[in-house]
UniProtKB/TrEMBL annotation:
Protein name listed in UniProt: Orotidine 5'-phosphate decarboxylase
Domain spans labelled Orotidine 5'-phosphate decarboxylase: 11-229
Any Pfam family matching the protein: OMPdecase
Protein task: Catalyzes the decarboxylation of orotidine 5'-monophosphate (OMP) to uridine 5'-monophosphate (UMP).
Originating organism: Floricoccus tropicus
Gene3D superfamilies: Aldolase class I
Record: active site: D65 (for ompdecase activity), K67 (for ompdecase activity), K67 (proton donor), D70 (for ompdecase activity)
Pathway(s) served: Pyrimidine metabolism; UMP biosynthesis via de novo pathway; UMP from orotate: step 2/2
Catalytic activity: orotidine 5'-phosphate + H(+) = UMP + CO2
Quaternary structure annotation from Swiss-Prot or TrEMBL: Homodimer.
Alphabetized NCBIfam families for the sequence: PRK00230.1, pyrF
């Protein structure tokens, strides 16, 4: 059964995983006249700083994906700076704890930026979680635990695999946002992701936002690839 949600973002969030600002602007130029939802991550932010976020946010909605994880006071002050960048969405690591997430929310007060938290990265397998994080529950139990802590802290939702979205909504609420990376059209290369799902399946399971990078950004025709993925997600 498909979830009925009060809100679902119908556009794929395009991961701008480029190594230069020129590549970013050349890519966005292909979509002239369209307002996209795009993700700016660590690579671009650490190279170009807030300026590239401000530039892109003038014409597009931005998910600033920095995954903050530090002591509460530091995260609160960092979020106060992010609040000035006019981004639609940003995130922290749920592993930082409820107090840190509450501090992050305080830092965003007065802005329209939604805050979500990373549960387990979609590049993490259950075996890796057991071996390197020494978390001995199942991967799904870990993700649900982090989701409940995120809801307790008052955040809007989580970053998770689409495979976990249904269980997260059952443990929290239908309005709790599930943003899901690791989306690949049927037959596409998986790359470094471990827990991948097609756009159509992600929508059926309960994803509210899907993040797609290389299948769009490295496509021979990025506009066509974007439109095809959007059609699959909204079918």
């Amino acid at each position: 059964m498909e979830y009925r949600r009060n809100f679902v973002e119908t556009r794929p969030v395009i991961a701008l995983d480029f190594s230069s600002d020129k590549e970013v602007y050349d890519f966005l130029e292909k979509f002239k006249g369209q307002r996209l939802f795009v993700k700016i991550g660590m690579e671009l932010f650490y190279k170009y700083g807030p300026e590239i976020v401000k530039q892109v946010a003038e014409n597009h909605d931005v998910f600033l994906d920095l995954k903050l994880h530090d002591i509460p006071n530091t995260v609160e002050r960092a979020m106060a700076n992010i609040a000035e960048l006019n981004v639609a969405l940003t995130n922290v690591h749920a592993a930082g704890g409820v107090e840190m997430m509450e501090a992050a929310l305080r830092g965003l007060e007065g802005s329209n930026t939604k805050l979500i938290a990373v549960t387990q990265l979609t590049s993490t397998s259950e075996e890796q979680m057991h071996e390197f994080q020494n978390i001995q529950t199942s991967l799904l139990d870990s993700v649900i635990h982090y989701a409940k802590c995120t809801e307790k802290a008052g955040l809007a939702g989580v970053v998770c695999s689409a495979k976990e979205a249904r269980a997260i909504k059952d443990a929290t609420s239908e309005d709790f946002i599930c943003l899901t990376p690791g989306i690949r059209p049927a037959g596409a290369e998986v790359g470094d992701q471990k827990r991948v799902v097609t756009p159509a399946d992600a929508r059926k399971i309960g994803s509210d936002y899907i993040v797609v990078g290389r299948p769009i950004t490295q496509a021979e025709n990025p506009v066509e690839a974007y439109e095809n993925i959007m059609e699959q997600y909204n079918s």
